[in-house]
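Hi team,

As requested, here is the filled-out complex form for the Phenylacetyl coenzyme A run. I kept the field names the same as last time so the parser does not choke. Let me know if anything looks off before we queue the next batch.

— J.
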Amino acid sequence: EMTPEEAAFQDRIDADIKIEPKDWMPDEYRATLVRQIGQHAHSEIVGQLPEGNWITRAPTLERKAILLAKVQDEAGHGLYLYCAAETLGVSRDELTEDLLSGRMKYSSIFNYPTLNWADIGAVGWLVDGAAIMNQVPLQRTSYGPYSRAMIRICKEESFHQRQGYDIMMKMAQGTEAQKKMAQDALNRFWYPSLMMFGPSDKESVHSAQSMAWKIKIDSNDELRQRFVDQTVPQAEYLGLTVPDDKLKWNEERGHYDFSEPDWTEFFNVLKGKGPCNTERMNGRKRAWEDGAWVRDGLMAHAQKRAARKVA
Ligand code: FAQ
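And here is what came back:
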């Protein structure tokens, strides 16, 4: 049974009226948003690590400048999202501490390694491609600050996807060795990219409530299907093969049939047992500890100024 307050809230959601920070909202709506936006913010920040790894090794000055700009964009996305989460009454420090203590998550995809330059192409093409597929509908999410952050982020994200595809085109049209690298990167990133959309709808514990509240607009499986349908022709254009024997156009459904990722592997990665979980968490811990003097200095400066004003 809904209380009158909850019913009025649901009416606003159903009428597509955005919820703003000072509006009444159910505790569970607030908690779900903090979880999702916080997890999303952490993903943008942790997501810098596998790519940052290649900034110094990009093959040309131009590629280096482009990758540097892209990785900086991810930092910016993290900041927009932390700000959106802060409007719900949590501080960025609390969110960071929840990440470092393992209470909060970040996207499974960033627990896979980037072994060579083709992987940077595959990350841009597939990982940013999957990210946009998920984020375009989130521009219409019911919480105002999240929705507005998504609008800005999506603009930059489409540039990221194109830069990844551009790397893949160069590699796929290059020497035999380069083409092999491109294929190998696709082989390794295909299923982890499909996992980005979350577990199958049957196993998605939050989807029903999140969709009723329009925090989520589409289901995990709907977005995964949309991603496969969009990406397969792009792979064909590159002359690369998607590593899935069952992949086949289904005329009747108007969609590709495809193999599910290995969900055991997915849940293991979520439990911290992916190839790079420890490395990523250590990277974040080190950055947080190394930055302590900056935070302390800023606090000391602010206190000094405040004291001077009083005097
Ligand atoms: N990884 O009930 P559901 C980027 C968890 S893009 C880790 O279906 P929900 C850009 C989920 O939290 C990546 N955990 O959950 C970039 C829940 O756990 P809990 C970030 C996952 O929330 C590109 C449990 O499984 N994008 O960073 C994952 O309704 C390149 C049950 O799942 C976003 O975060 C996963 N893949 O749906 C940056 C988008 N999937 O909390 C750098 C916003 C599920 O109960 C370089 N988020 N879980 O313990 C969303 O749309 C949703 O949160 C989903 C999951 C769709 C990810």
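Two things worth flagging: The first helix runs from residue 4 to 14. The beta strands are 248-250, 255-257.

Thanks,
J.
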